[in-house]
Amino acid sequence: MYVILVYDIKTDEGGARASRGVFKTCKKYLTHVQKSVFEGEIRPALLKKLQAELKPYIRKNKDSVLVFISREERWLQKEFWGKIDEKTSNFF
Fold first, then answer.
1. Helical ranges in 1-92 per DSSP H
2. Sign of the C-alpha dihedral, residues 21, 24, 29, 32?
3. CA gap 79, 44 in Å, rounded
4. How far is it, in rounded angstroms, from Cα 75 to Cα 77?
């Protein structure tokens, strides 16, 4: 399956630690696209593992992670408005 993962970590006490943890964990499984956006192919079992590894960093009352799931990348239409980042240029 193909996923786009977006996270939002509140910048308060503990936010920097949470943000670093989420970033490092996501980078193990997906491609970093923009500040708090990752995307890539991932098996369902690895997505569950990613979710479990993120759990200690996500503070339920302050932070959020949003995951868009598609069967395959080809079912997504991607448009860049503004600067095209080289990290995602291989997805055209």
1. 15-29, 44-54
2. positive
3. 26
4. 7
pLDDT of residue 90: 47
Bridge partner residues of 40 (DSSP): 3
Question: What is residue 85's predicted lDDT score, i.e. its pLDDT?
Answer: 66
For residues 15-31, one letter each, b for 16 or more C-beta atoms within 10 angstroms of the residue's C-beta and e for the rest, the string is eeebbebbbebbeebbe
Q: What residues in the chain have per-residue pLDDT under 50? A: 89-92
Residue with token string 């079992």: 45
Query: Quick check: pTM over 0.90?
Result: no
Q: Where are the beta strands (DSSP E) in 1-92?
A: 2-8, 31-34, 37-41, 64-70
